[in-house]
Design goal:
heterodimer; A: Rossmann fold; Rossmann fold; 6-stranded mixed β-sheet; 18 helices; 33% helix; 24% strand; B: globular
Chain lengths: 506, 334
C-alpha cells in the first residue's frame, strides 16, 4: 500500500527545497528571496497574516506560477526549472485548496479517481476501477464514505476527506492543505489531525496552512513564519508557543489578557426567558446588560446559531419570551428585529453579509436605506455618502474610496464593512456569530477592539464563537451551550480558560 | 441518521410516477390513447424534438445554454435541401453538407462564448437572430417544395399490424432518435469526454485546476448540439417532404422544457439521458391526450409553461427541508 519512499535516509533529505525564491506580480514583491525546505514524513506548518506570501509559495511549488530568475525550486532532489502544474503533479505535489475544488454533482468515487477520466476524450470510463481506486484511497486514510453518494450531499468535513483521498489516489508525496480546518467542528478537526498523523507516518510531507494557532501547536513538527513576503524563520514546534507565533507573524507584542468587566449593576438590555424551539434549543434563559459582552460557546450544532436566528426574528420560537429594554418582543421577521434595535452579523459574512458586486457605499448603507430616504422614499445621495464615510472613518476601514467595489478590499477590511453595516443601524443589541472566522491575528485584535469600544458605548453584545479563547479573553461572561441548552455560565475573572474548555469538550 | 430517513425521490422517479398517472387518466378518457399505433405515432411525431433535446441536454450539462439550435437546424436543412434539390448533389454529399453546416454553426457559438467570454445565453440569442435572419433574407422565405426521392421516401425498419388492423411502422425518424439517445448516453456516461463535461458543468474552476481543457469542452458541447441540430433538420425535412425555412424556429421553448423537466439544470452539471427522455415522454403524452380530447393546439404552450413552473417549484421545494433540524439531532447523536 505504501508509496515507494526510499529508505530512512530520504527523510533527512528535503522533498521540497526553495533557494532564494522570489516572485513579483507587476511591481509588487509577493515573495522576497525565501529559503525553505519541507521534509518527507513531517508536518510543516506555514503561518502568516493574509498577504504574507503563503499562497504564493504554494502556487510556486505546484507550478501554477513561475518564480523570478535566480530562484531555485528543487523537488525530490533535483532543481525543477519551468515547473508546470502537470509536472508538479507527476512529481507528487498535490494541493488541497481551501475551496476543495471538488465536483459537487459527481459521486465520491468519481471525485477521488478523477484522474481516470482526464486526458484523451475518447478514453472509456472505467467505472469499476474508479470505485476500487476510491475505496483504496479511503482505506489508506482509515475511513469509509458511501462511494456512490454525490459530493453535494456530504457534509463539509466529508468533502474534505474526499479532497484528501483524491490527493492520495493521485500518488501524493507532498500535500499542501490550505486552511483545511476553517469550516470544521472540533471533533472533525480531531479526525483530520488523525488523518494528517497517518499520512506523516506513511512518509508523506504535509504542509499545513492555518490561522488557528492552537491546531498548529497540536499538529506541527516545524513551523515557518512568513511576514510581508519574507521568511521570518523556521522553528521546531518545541521552541514556540502560541503567543510567540503571534508575535512573529505580526511583529507586534500581543496583549492577551482577560478583559472582562463587571456589569452586574447595569440595567439589562436583553432578557430571554424559557425560550424553546423544538429540535433546535430548549428552555434558554439569560440576560445581557447594558455595555456587557456575553460570550456564547459550545460545539458546532449545539444550537447557538439557531438561538441567534430566533433572537433576530428569522425563526419563531415555540415558547418563551424575549424582552428588549423591558419591553416584550414578538418578532415576526428580521425587519422587526432591526427596528426594535437588534443587529446580527452572520457567521458566513462574506456570503450572507456582503454583496460582492456592489460598492463599499452600497454595502455599508444597505441596512439603513429607509432612514436615509427623504420624502417619497427617494434616497438622498449626499446622506448616503456621509453615512458611509462616517463608518469608514470610525472603524478605520482601508478603502480606495466609498465607491470602490467591495471585492477590491482585503478580507479584514471586508469584515469591518459587514460590522459597520450593522452598527449603522445603531443597535441596542448586537449579535456577532463567529466574528473572526478566517480572519488573521492582526485583524482579529482590531475586531476585538471595535467590539469592546461598542460595549463601552453601551451596546449589549452577544458574541458566539467556538474558539473558547476568543470568548474567554473578550467577553464579560461566558455561557456554554450543549445540545440546545445552556449548561454552564462562567466568569473569566474567576474561572480558568481550561475549565471552560474541559466542560465544552467533555 | 441520513440512512434511516426515507430517501428522497429523484426527478426521474417523480416524472415516471406523473407519467404513469397521466397515462392512466388519458386511457380512461379516451380508449385510443393506450394503443400501439398511438404510441408509435407519438414516437414519430416527437422524434425531431427528441434529437434536439439530446443535443441541448449536453450543452446544459456543460454549464451553458443554447437558444440558436432551431435556427442552426433550419440553416443546415436548407443548405442540404438546396444542394440536393437545386444543385443535384448525391445523397451522401448533401447529408454531409447538412451535418457539416450544423457542426460549423455550433463551433462558431463555442468560439464566441469561450474566446469572447460572453454568457452563452447572450451569444446564442444573438446568433439565433443572425443565423435565422440570414436564412430568411437569402432565401426570401421561399420553401423548397420537392426533395429528391432518396430524402423524402418513407424508410420503414419494421412493420406489423395492430389488433384493429391498423398499420404500425417503425420508421427512420424513430430509429434516428433512438440512435441519438444511445449515442448521447454512451458519450456522457462511458467516455472521458462526457465525464469532463459533467466536471466543467459542476465546478468550472476545479475542472480547470485538474487540467480539463475548457476550450475543447466548449467546442465539444456546442459542436455536438450543432451536429444534432443538423440531423434534426434533415429528419424534419424527411418527415414533411420539403424544406421550409421557418418550419423549426419557435421550437426552442418546448425543447428546453423537455430537458429541464427531465432534471437537467440551467446551472449545469446535472441531468441524464433517461431523464430527458422521460421529460419528452411527459410533454408528448400531455399533448397527445389534449389532442385526442379535441383541445385546440393553441392551448398546448400554456401547458408547457405551467409544467415548467410546477416541476421546477417542486424540485425547488423538495431541496430545502429543515436542514438545521437534521444538523442538531445529528450532532446530538454523534
Amino acid at each position: 500500500m505504501l508509496l515507494p519512499i526510499e529508505g530512512k535516509d530520504s527523510r533527512m533529505q528535503p522533498f521540497l527545497r526553495f533557494d532564494t525564491v522570489s516572485k513579483r506580480f507587476g511591481g509588487v514583491t509577493a515573495l522576497d528571496r525565501v529559503d525553505w525546505d519541507v521534509r518527507s514524513g513531517e508536518v510543516h506548518c506555514l503561518v502568516g497574516e493574509n498577504g504574507c506570501g503563503k499562497s504564493t509559495m504554494i502556487k510556486l511549488a505546484a507550478g501554477v506560477h513561475d518564480a523570478e530568475p535566480g530562484s531555485v525550486i528543487a523537488i525530490d532532489g533535483a532543481a525543477r526549472d519551468g515547473l508546470t502544474p502537470a509536472a508538479a503533479k507527476s512529481l507528487g505535489v498535490q494541493v488541497i485548496f481551501q475551496d476543495l475544488s471538488l465536483f459537487p454533482n459527481l459521486s465520491v468515487a468519481e471525485n477521488i479517481a478523477i484522474g481516470e477520466v482526464l486526458g484523451p476524450l475518447a478514453r472509456p470510463v472505467p467505472w469499476g476501477r474508479m470505485r476500487r481506486i476510491a475505496g483504496e484511497a479511503l482505506a489508506r486514510l482509515g475511513l469509509a464514505l458511501p462511494l456512490d453518494a454525490s459530493v453535494a450531499s456530504l457534509p463539509i468535513a466529508s468533502r474534505q476527506i474526499v479532497a484528501i483521498a483524491r490527493g492520495i489516489a493521485a500518488k501524493a508525496r507532498l500535500l499542501f492543505m490550505d486552511e483545511p480546518t476553517a469550516s470544521l467542528t472540533r471533533s472533525e478537526v480531531k479526525r483530520l489531525m488523525g488523518i494528517v498523523a497517518r499520512l506523516k507516518a506513511e512518509g508523506l510531507a504535509v504542509v499545513f496552512v492555518s490561522h488557528r494557532l492552537e491546531e498548529i501547536m497540536e499538529v506541527a513538527d516545524r513551523v515557518t513564519v512568513m511576514r510581508d513576503g519574507r521568511k521570518v524563520g523556521t522553528w521546531p514546534i518545541g521552541e514556540l508557543d502560541i503567543r510567540r507565533i503571534g508575535e512573529l507573524m505580526t511583529g507586534l507584542v500581543i496583549d492577551t489578557g482577560v478583559t472582562a468587566n463587571d456589569r452586574s449593576a447595569a440595567p439589562p438590555v436583553l432578557e430571554v426567558r424559557g425560550l424553546t424551539r423544538r429540535g433546535e434549543y430548549e428552555d434558554v434563559s439569560f440576560q445581557i446588560r447594558k455595555g456587557e459582552i456575553v460570550g456564547l460557546t459550545g460545539l458546532l450544532g449545539a444550537g447557538r446559531t439557531e438561538l441567534a436566528l430566533s433572537l433576530f426574528g428569522m425563526t419563531a420560537p415555540d415558547s418563551g419570551s424575549i424582552a428588549l429594554d423591558g419591553r416584550r418582543l414578538a418578532l415576526g421577521s428580521n425587519g422587526q428585529a432591526m427596528r426594535a434595535g437588534i443587529g446580527y452579523v452572520p457567521e458566513d459574512r462574506l456570503r450572507l453579509g456582503l454583496d460582492m458586486r456592489q460598492s463599499v457605499r452600497a454595502n455599508l448603507t444597505a441596512t439603513v436605506l429607509r432612514r436615509l430616504a427623504g420624502r417619497f422614499g427617494i434616497l438622498n445621495p449626499e446622506a448616503v455618502r456621509q453615512t458611509a464615510r462616517h463608518w469608514i472613518g470610525r472603524l478605520r476601514i482601508k478603502v480606495p474610496g466609498v465607491d470602490a467595489p467591495i471585492d477590491q478590499l482585503s478580507g479584514g477590511n471586508q469584515q469591518r464593512v459587514v460590522i459597520a453595516k450593522w452598527l449603522a443601524t445603531q443597535p441596542r443589541l448586537l449579535i456577532l456569530d463567529s466574528p473572526t472566522v478566517g480572519v488573521d491575528i492582526g485583524n482579529k485584535q482590531s475586531i476585538y477592539e471595535i467590539v469592546r469600544g461598542l460595549a463601552e458605548a453601551g451596546v449589549a453584545i452577544l458574541m458566539i464563537s467556538d474558539e473558547i479563547a476568543e470568548v474567554y479573553f473578550n467577553a464579560d461572561r461566558v455561557l456554554h451551550m450543549r445540545e440546545g441548552r445552556i449548561v454552564g455560565a462562567y466568569n473569566p475573572r474567576q474561572d480558568a480558560e481550561h475549565t471552560i474548555a474541559e466542560a465544552v469538550h467533555a | 441518521m441520513r440512512d434511516l430517513l426515507p430517501r428522497r425521490l429523484g426527478t426521474e422517479h417523480w416524472l415516471a410516477l406523473v407519467i404513469l398517472a397521466l397515462a392512466a387518466f388519458w386511457s380512461l378518457m379516451t380508449p385510443w390513447f393506450l394503443t400501439l399505433p398511438n404510441a408509435v405515432d407519438i414516437l414519430e411525431t416527437w422524434s425531431v424534438t427528441t434529437i434536439l433535446a439530446l443535443g441541448v441536454f449536453v450543452v446544459l450539462v456543460a454549464g451553458g445554454i443554447d437558444i440558436s439550435f432551431a435556427a442552426t437546424a433550419s440553416v443546415a436543412q436548407y443548405a442540404a435541401a438546396s444542394a440536393a434539390a437545386n444543385a443535384g448533389w448525391p445523397a451522401m454529399a448533401a447529408i454531409s453538407l447538412g451535418l457539416g453546416v450544423g457542426v460549423l454553426l455550433g463551433l462558431l457559438n463555442a468560439a464566441l462564448i469561450y474566446h469572447l467570454r460572453i454568457a452563452s445565453i447572450i451569444v446564442t440569442i444573438a446568433t439565433q437572430s443572425v443565423y435565422f435572419a440570414l436564412l430568411m433574407w437569402w432565401t426570401g422565405g421561399k420553401l423548397i417544395p420537392v426533395l429528391p426521392d432518396w430524402w423524402s421516401d418513407r424508410i420503414v425498419f419494421a412493420q406489423g399490424q395492430a389488433a384493429d388492423g391498423s398499420l404500425i411502422r417503425i420508421t427512420l425518424p424513430i430509429v434516428a432518435a433512438a440512435a441519438c439517445a444511445l449515442a448521447t448516453w454512451l458519450l456522457m456516461n462511458w467516455t472521458a469526454a462526457g465525464r469532463q463535461l459533467y466536471c466543467m458543468g459542476g465546478n468550472p474552476e476545479a475542472a480547470r485546476r485538474v487540467g480539463i481543457g475548457i476550450a475543447r469542452m466548449h467546442y465539444l458541447a456546442y459542436g455536438f448540439l450543432g451536429f444534432m441540430a443538423g440531423l434534426a433538420g434533415l429528419v424534419q425535412a424527411h418527415r414533411v417532404g420539403q424544406a421550409v425555412p421557418n418550419a423549426m424556429v419557435g421550437q426552442e421553448l418546448g425543447v428546453l422544457a423537455a430537458a429541464v423537466l427531465g432534471g437537467a439544470s440551467l446551472n449545469g452539471g446535472v441531468g441524464s439521458v433517461g431523464g430527458v427522455l422521460l421529460g419528452l415522454l411527459m410533454l408528448a403524452i400531455l399533448q397527445n391526450g389534449l389532442n385526442l380530447l379535441g383541445w385546440s393546439s393553441y392551448f398546448f404552450p400554456v401547458v408547457i409553461g405551467l409544467v415548467i413552473l410546477i416541476s421546477t417549484s417542486i424540485t425547488g421545494l423538495a431541496s430545502r427541508p429543515g436542514r438545521r433540524r437534521a444538523r442538531i439531532t445529528g450532532a446530538a447523536h454523534g
